[in-house]
Amino acid sequence: MHIPFSSSPRTSLGIEWELELVDLRTRQLRGAATEILDELVQKVGEEDAAKAKHELYESTIEVITGVCDTVPQALADLTGTIDVLRGLAERRGIGLMCSGTHPFSHYSGQVISENERYFRLVDQMQWLAHRMLIFGVHVHVGVRSPDKAFPIVNALMAYIPHFLALSASSPYWLGQDTGLASSRSKVFESLPTAGLPYQLANWDQFERFMATLISSGTIETIREVWWDIRPHPNFGTVELRICDGLPTLEEVGAVAALTQSLVDRMNTQLDRGYTLPVPSRWVVQENKWRAARFGLDAEILVDDRGTTRPVRGELLDLVDDLLPVARRLGCASELAAVPRIIEAGASYERQRAAARRAEGDLVAVVDTLLGEMNAGRPHVESS
Q: For 89-132, how does the pLDDT look when each residue is reduced to its tens digit (9 = 90+)?
């Protein structure tokens, strides 16, 4: 099976941001995507309206950028679409927000979007698909050839705990505190073709593996492989999908800058003949669990001998290491937001703080998330 890869001549960038539609009266999720998206077409035309689309449930709208060169350009693209959507939503008594899970809305009351692909998914996966009331941020970065795709995917797996700890925003599930920083990551990996990617050596192995999955009836198209990190042949990118939904534009920018800088450095290292390191699968799996459970308080493994370090320190060191790359890419200020986010607390920490202030009332968590989305930056308690 031949899978053509649309190689990117530069380290281009694209972002997908899954937004929740929240009823401002009840703070529950509300299915209104179709009517909002239909009006968006009338307001801005089909070309610009294509930057917002349906997801599995009617209570979600995914906002996507075009192909961008820089993180600031991508953030401006997202902002332009969201500003229009916000007006259309607010006229209906709906607010926009993002988190890995809604703190208390139940999947059983959600309406599936009118799309044959989604109907097939639910028919095949049953309860597993119904539970997919989860929200994420995906970052695409251009790769210059298919030969580089899997060396970069494999090397990026070492950074799964960094991205998951920084973005973790799903401590609550169906009104209960799960004890996890990211319950979304555990819900999502229950799908048979989701979770950690297989460590394939090259593009030929990927083509053979996809051919096996299709011929066996496991998937119909390669779009149904939802790994935490995957190559996207049509776009010519590596797509980082591990992140929980990020509540603010500042956090989206920080994750995008971290991703673009890492992939650009790996692209350059491969150009210079370097071999990228491949972490052991068991280390990656353990580190993903630690980040999902403990978030920024995780102690992650940094070698095969069991040596651990705080993920906070690993993130701060990574930012320092990548700053020269980020300056060249024009995203140094966005990358510099990572330490600020760590100091303010990741979203799972801020959500729990909001619940404590409200004596356990999760409506206050939704209000905090709505406010952060509107402000574009994390809420920091005044001392």
A: 999 999 999 999 999 999 998 999 999 999 999 999 999 999 99
Q: Is the pTM of this model over 0.85?
A: yes
Q: Per the domain annotation, does 2 fall within a domain?
A: no
In this predicted structure, the answer to whether residue 382 has a pLDDT above a threshold of 70 is no
| 177 φ, ψ (degrees, to nearest 5) | -75, 120
Q: Is 3 a domain residue?
A: no
CATH number of 70's domain: 3.30.590.20
Taking residues 37-65, report their average pLDDT.
95
Q: Which domain holds residue 250?
A: 13-371
* Total of domains in the chain: 1
Q: Is the pLDDT of residue 9 over 90?
A: no
Q: How confident is the model at residue 226 (pLDDT cuts 50, 70, 90)?
A: very high
Q: Tell me which residue of 6, 2, 4, 8 sits closest to 260, measured CA to CA.
A: 8
* Chain segment 141-188, per-residue pLDDT in tens: 999 999 999 999 999 999 999 999 999 999 999 999 999 999 999 999
Contact of 172 with 351, CB cutoff 8 Å = yes
> Is residue 299 in some structural domain?
yes
pLDDT surpasses 60 at 258: yes
What's the 3-state SS for the chain?
Answer: CCCCCCCCCCCCEEEEEEEEEEECCCCCECCCHHHHHHHHHHHHCHHHHCCEEECCECCEEEEECCCECCHHHHHHHHHHHHHHHHHHHHCCCEEEECCCCCCCCCHHHCCECCCHHHHHHHHHHCHHHHCCCCCEEEEEEECCCHHHHHHHHHHHHHHHHHHHHHHCCECEECCEECCCCEHHHHHHCCCCCEECCCCCCCHHHHHHHHHHHHHCCCCCCHHHCEECEEEECCCCEEEECCCECCCCHHHHHHHHHHHHHHHHHHHHHHHCCCCCCCCCHHHHHHHHHHHHHHHHHCEEECCCCCCEEEHHHHHHHHHHHHHHHHHHHCCHHHHCHHHHHHHHCCHHHHHHHHHHHCCCCCHHHHHHHHHHHHHCCCCCCCC
User: How far are the Cα atoms of 3, 153, 191, 285, 333 from residue 209, in angstroms, in the given order?
Assistant: 11, 16, 18, 21, 40
User: Is residue 1 very low, low, confident or very high in pLDDT (cuts 50, 70, 90)?
Assistant: confident
